[in-house]
Amino acid sequence: RPVRAGWTEKLNCARRGAVHGGGAPPVREEVMDISTEIQIDRAELERRVVDYTGTAAFQEWLADAADAYRAMGLPVPSYEVLRAEETDEVRRCIENLMVCEAKGHLWTERADPENGTSTLSCRRCGAEEHLRW
């Protein structure tokens, strides 16, 4: 499967659309292992996946995936295969988000002392917080 150029964040789908409606699709990056000590509600996970995969943003995501295959000169899989691949990716992203909702984020800070700002980003789900101090 091709990797789409320009993807630098992982799960801003959770903050911009996959869970709360509208916005950008999930973005690929390394997916963190989910702790076995956290039990997430599988029915809620599947509800969120179905909600997101029914959006226009997800349809754009599928079109982008097909374009990425074409751009690399690879054969484009059937719509059903492409949809299944992308739905699996969305499921992993939302599952990571749900773990963060239950357990808390794994924050990493990038400070900019010259401007008095910091950006906190979660290593698990990709959520970001921008702080001014």
Structural description of this entry:
The protein has four helices and three strands; from the N terminus they run H-H-H-H-E-E-E. The radius of gyration is 16 Å and the shape is flat. With 133 residues, it is α+β, with helices and mostly antiparallel strands.
Give a concise summary.
By secondary structure, this protein is α+β, with helices and mostly antiparallel strands.
Mean pLDDT: 78
Number of E strands: 3
Strand order within the widest sheet? 1-2-3
The level of helicity is: 40-55%
Radius of gyration using CA atoms only: 16 Å
State the major sheet: 3 strands, antiparallel
- Label the structural class: alpha+beta
Cα separation of the termini: 42 Å
Uncertain parts:
1-35
Question: How much of the polypeptide forms β-strand, as a percent range?
Answer: 5-15%
- Give the count of helical stretches: 4
Key traits:
single chain; 133 residues; alpha+beta; 3-stranded antiparallel beta sheet; 4 helices; 3 strands
